[in-house]
Amino acid sequence: MTFKELIASEKPVIVDFYAEWCGPCKAFAPVLQDLKAELGDSAQIVKIDVDKNQELSVKMKVNSIPTVMIFQNGELKFRERGAQTKQKLKNEIFKLTQEAEN
């Protein structure tokens, strides 16, 4: 599956650009695990290793990690550098699912 196909989902797709050696990325991982447990099937979480996906990282202009993006229907809806709180990400997902229902 290509990145373009991955983010084309009607359900929000949270993309975490990270690296194995990145301390803040490691600290952020449990937040994403908790978020996935709470969101269930209402959103998808994808982790992309910037070292293994350098071309995509450059294309997406990821120059700081972690970088979190949320896509829906192929459109970038949210982008922030650095670890995010679970509540902030939940709020962003909630906004997108509410928009989809209206």
Structural features, described:
The protein has helices at 3-7, 23-39, 54-59, 86-101, and strands spanning 13-18, 44-49, 67-72, 75-81. With 102 residues, the chain is of the alpha+beta class. It has a single domain, classed as Glutaredoxin (3-Layer(aba) Sandwich). It has a four-stranded mixed sheet with strand order 2-1-3-4, covered by helices on one side. β1 (13-18), α2 (23-39) and β2 (44-49) form a beta-alpha-beta unit. It is globular. The relative contact order is 0.23. The model has no long low-confidence stretch (mean pLDDT 95).
Describe the protein's topology.
Layout (H helix, E strand, L loop, with lengths): L2 H5 L5 E6 L4 H17 L4 E6 L4 H6 L7 E6 L2 E7 L4 H16 L1
Parallel strand pairs: 1-2
Antiparallel strand pairs: 1-3, 3-4
Our count of domains comes out at 1
User: Helix-strand pattern, N to C?
Assistant: HEHEHEEH
User: Which bin fits the share of residues in helices?
Assistant: 40-55%
Question: Helix count?
Answer: 4
The outline comes out as globular
Based on CA atoms alone, the radius of gyration comes out at 13 Å
* Biggest beta sheet summary: 4 strands, mixed
Strand content: 15-25%
- Briefly note the structural class of the backbone: alpha+beta
| CATH topology tier name | Glutaredoxin
Distance between the termini: 30 Å
The CATH homologous superfamily is termed: Glutaredoxin
- How many distinct beta strands? 4
Task: Give me the CATH architecture, please.
Answer: 3-Layer(aba) Sandwich
Cross-sheet strand order for the largest sheet: 2-1-3-4
Low-confidence spans: none
